[in-house]
Amino acid sequence: MTRYRIGLPLLVACTFLSGWGTGARAETGALNVLTWCDHEDPALLEPFEKAHNVKVHYKDIDSTGAALAVIQQSHPGDWDVLVLDETDTGRLADMGLLAALDPADFPMTDLFEGVSNPALNVVNGKMYSVPEKFGYNAVAYDSAHIKAPALSNIQAPWSAEYKDRVAIYDYYVPIIAYAAQALGKDPEHLTDADLPALRDKLAALRHNAALVGDITTTQQALATGQVDILVGGGEWVTAGMHKDRPDLAYLVPEQGGIRWQQGIAVFAASSHKDLATAFAKYILTPAAQAKLATSSCYWGMPANRKAVLNDADKAILQWAQQPAYIARTATYPQLTPAFDKTLQKLWTEVMQNE
């Protein structure tokens, strides 16, 4: 979501606490965290700060690329903890940036089945991140105008019935992957041979859509009734607005959808590895998971099934549907730099051609 995370949305602009410049300097009694905005609520941070007599300083990032840019301009050891899209864990581990974690330190058996995926966070037998939050790029919709069964088929947004009632989230990775699923293709194994069919499928979707936009634009379009369907939407769009717009919902079609998945990691060069690991362990506790899931920045599913959420919040997140949703969704594809550029070019050409 641009939040160009190779993963997720930034629903509001967030600032970092200490007024730092690009770098942070390691200091006693402080933990320095590069994170997305959902980890910045005082209600989440204060229990850890009090328990460890420490101040958590954070800098808001919107992608793995942004995190790397900060690291390159910082001193070794300045940063302790990183929140990242787990699709990028292997790449950063191979760069020597992440410390190996002991699975025994974390409630791995309490995580949703299918979310804890060694293919994403284990390199050469060592775990480098722990899943902490996830959600979907599938379909968000206004249930006052369209009922869920009408959208249970992944082909629905391409239907002429919904011409100009559709918005497209402007992030090429999940939407191209979603289009691949609509073509019956595995988004994890796309090649140049798939590009012509993907181009045609994306062009047909763009022709049916009223707009292509960033998070704020598409969320507002759905909330104000400008559109009834958001392709690429999920709980991160609708859940936080439930109080004011209870008719907004999301679903994962029967043929599948795309799952974003956040992980938490410790920097290999951290000067406070024990404290950083303690913070990662805290984030996976049931109480912290509930606060992370209902962050003021954006909601999402907690990775820990024991998160202390009330029944109303679980209903908003569609807790009961999660095993089925997880089973039929694919995580973000791991792209080579060359193929990533190819997909960006394809996306730009198609989405700007209306």
From TrEMBL:
Regions crossing the membrane: none
InterPro entries, sorted: SBP (IPR006059), Sperm_putr-bd (IPR001188)
Keywords: Periplasm, Signal, Transport
Subcellular location: Periplasm
Range of residues in the leader sequence: 1-26
Lineage top rank: taxon: Bacteria
UniProt xrefs under Pfam families: SBP_bac_8 (PF13416)
This protein's name: Spermidine/putrescine ABC transporter substrate-binding protein
